[in-house]
Write a structure and sequence with these properties.
Rossmann fold; globular
């Protein structure tokens, strides 16, 4: 891809989204994402905003959190560890449309973690079922109307607020991900570049945020070409 084409989103199907994706490459790709989330502090950025939002809550406060497009469930597991240190009574539900992915995530289910297959565009939960709805590295997989729909659904099922993190599209990010995935399996190499090419710039995500009616969520730039939309609803 020519860098000049990154002035606009370049929509590309990512191999790991295919229901018939090679199981071995998918497993290795999920492992790569877990390592990347830790190494580049992507998971930490989500926990940073959860800490901001809950720092005044007393110990043993019950919280229900939904993780949309959970992947292999590394973010929910990190949230449970974080909650244990904060002495908060957290229950996390992770959903994903990919059955193979949910199967892998479900291996870590326990009293604090629950995973199920579900569609992020039509969440099977009543209004306000959760305190917070979060998602990480998912929005770039979607076209613009779908991004609006997902943010709207996250807003609908959460009582307190949302946290949505993803990649920032730029020439530097594309160059970096090309080098970072150079020795990885073919799925990682393809999907890494595709992810950046269809990621979002600040004006683009803020426009979609406004269309979704979640203007309370502020834009935060984080390390390693990542942004987070995070906010609590008025009155919380």
């Amino acid at each position: 891809m020519l860098f000049s084409s990154l002035n606009h989103r370049h929509r590309t199907h990512e191999w790991m989204d295919d229901p018939n994706a090679n199981a071995d490459q998918l497993r290795k790709s999920l492992a790569f994402i877990r390592r990347t989330n830790t190494l580049l502090r992507y998971t930490r950025s989500t926990l940073h905003h959860l800490t901001r939002f809950t720092q005044s809550l007393p110990a043993l406060t019950p919280l229900k959190i939904l993780d949309v497009a959970t992947g292999s469930g590394d973010v929910p597991r990190a949230i449970v560890r974080w909650a244990s240190k904060r002495k908060l009574d957290v229950r996390v539900t992770g959903i994903d449309l990919q059955s193979k992915t949910i199967h892998e995530a479900s291996a870590s289910s326990n009293n604090h973690l629950h995973f199920l297959q579900a569609d992020a565009l039509n969440l099977p939960f009543a209004d306000g079922t959760f305190d917070y709805a979060i998602t990480s590295l998912f929005l770039h997989h979607l076209d613009e109307p779908q991004i609006v729909a997902v943010l709207s659904e996250m807003n609908r099922v959460s009582q307190r607020g949302i946290i949505a993190g993803d990649l920032i599209r730029s020439k530097r990010a594309y160059f970096w991900i090309t080098l970072f995935t150079l020795l990885s399996n073919p799925m990682v190499r393809h999907d890494g570049r595709a992810s950046v090419a269809q990621a979002l710039t600040r004006p683009e995500i803020l426009s979609l945020r406004d269309l979704a009616g979640v203007t309370y969520a502020s834009y935060h730039k984080h390390f390693a070409h990542r942004f987070v939309l995070a906010g609590q609803k008025p009155g919380v």
